Amino acid sequence: MRFLSSLLVLFVASSISAADLKVGVVDMTKAFTEYYKTKDASSKMKGNKDKAMSEMNERFATYKNLLNEAQDPILTQEGRAKAGAEFQDKLKEARALEQEINEFQQRRSMQLKQEEMQLQKGLYDEIVAVVKDKSKSSGYDLVFDKSGVSMTTVPVLLYYKDATEFTDEVIVELNKNAP
Description:
This protein is mainly α. The protein is 70% helix and 6% strand. A three-stranded parallel beta sheet has the order 2-1-3. The mean pLDDT is 84.
């Protein structure tokens, strides 16, 4: 897919004379990293992950206590017989709790991943909007992301001679409303 889009760009670029073509370059990774909202989102996600870990620790503590209760030694024969049924109930409860912990962990992990992806997409959309506005106002015909890599992890943009690098201008625009 990237190969086809690269060919299209080359075709368009070759059909326009070099003197008429104004090319810009942006480092989207740098813009994303230095955007103040990215730092806020990272803090929020860390808080959510810490909260999820705390919830998991509570469940594990309950599970551990339940297992400890099920393994308390009974000294008398009478006590052992009475505790047999209780032991089986506790074991059954422990298995159910273990299943619930596993399901909770998977569900919570998926929720956190989805939330992180949504946050990143929202931030990326904001950055792209600023890049597009800056590109239009500066009259760029083409703008490349110099941090992009191909499927073989080779940078897509290997060289740019007459292109204008305007990442810092994008970052200033993104952070102009930072608290």
